Amino acid sequence: MRKILGIGETIYDILFRQGQPVAAVPGGSVFNGLISLGRTGLDCTFITEVGDDQVGQNILAFMQKNGINTDYVSCYQGKKTAISLAFLDENNDAHYSFYKDYPNNRLDFEMPLIQKNDIVAFGAYFALNPVLKDKVRPFLNYAKQQGAILYYDLNFRDNHKHEVESLRDTFKENFAVADIVRGSHEDFINVYGHDDCRKIYDEISKYCPRFICTRGKDGVLVIDHGQEYTFSSNPIVPVSTIGAGDNFNAGILYGLYTGGIGRENLDRLTQEDWSRLIRFGIEFGTETCMSTSNYVSKEFAQKYKIDR
Length: 308
Description:
Layout: E1 4-7, E2 11-17, E3 20-27, H1 29-39, E4 44-51, H2 54-65, E5 68-69, E6 73-76, E7 83-88, E8 94-99, E9 119-123, H3 133-145, E10 149-153, H4 164-177, E11 180-184, H5 185-192, H6 197-204, E12 210-214, E13 220-224, E14 227-231, H7 244-258, H8 271-288, H9 298-303
Parallel strand pairs: 1-4, 1-9, 2-7, 4-5, 4-6, 9-10, 10-11, 11-12
Antiparallel strand pairs: 2-3, 7-8, 12-13, 13-14
Helix pairs in contact: 1-7, 7-8
């Protein structure tokens, strides 16, 4: 049976509105999507790191409760789990401050078993961090060699914009190993200085032929081997946009899994296939915007439940 694996950061998000804390939930870009997929019953494994503190123990228990295999989580003795303060503005978009306490030697894990057509999610600064590159790169290369589908979400925040030039080669390595590259228009502005999707695709397609750009209320653009498809967003008034992109990703992965799309199908995706995938992405992302949680609700997930 196919599995979904993710590698990325785990962090504890404390949300503020008008200067007051309103919620506190476990988070992380890949983490958020895997929690949603675990709630639908998919077989999910997460490679990540937490501190050996109460917050870390609570997050591990939360992951297990939501169906995530935690066998490959690094737990650092004497260290605290990373925390973010997320300040929601008048549009309920978040602006972050991060507090982290990592050891010098990070992310020690044995390679999990990966089989053909398993799906691997990676992205954000975790997939670019020079400190972690010698741990993340071998995992991604191994997954590619085993025939997994690799989904890369740039999720590149403006607090790292000053590092863009030094990370160019790592971006290219990530594009080259990926089967699908997704980014928001904000991500592409941070990386390329503009969000002209055709020009950006012309660059990325040297490495990966499948490209998704999410543009908030302006919808979604897909370019697959040069063919463009556009899709409309659901009109909503969000409670919080935290996790929206992460769960858009979860919807795409859910669609790949339930649609039986494997590596042998990727070069033959039709407009109808993409319409189905993007519909799941928009539905999962929209659901997440309707609460201060970082993932789809259990009630929503129940409608998409998979028996295995």
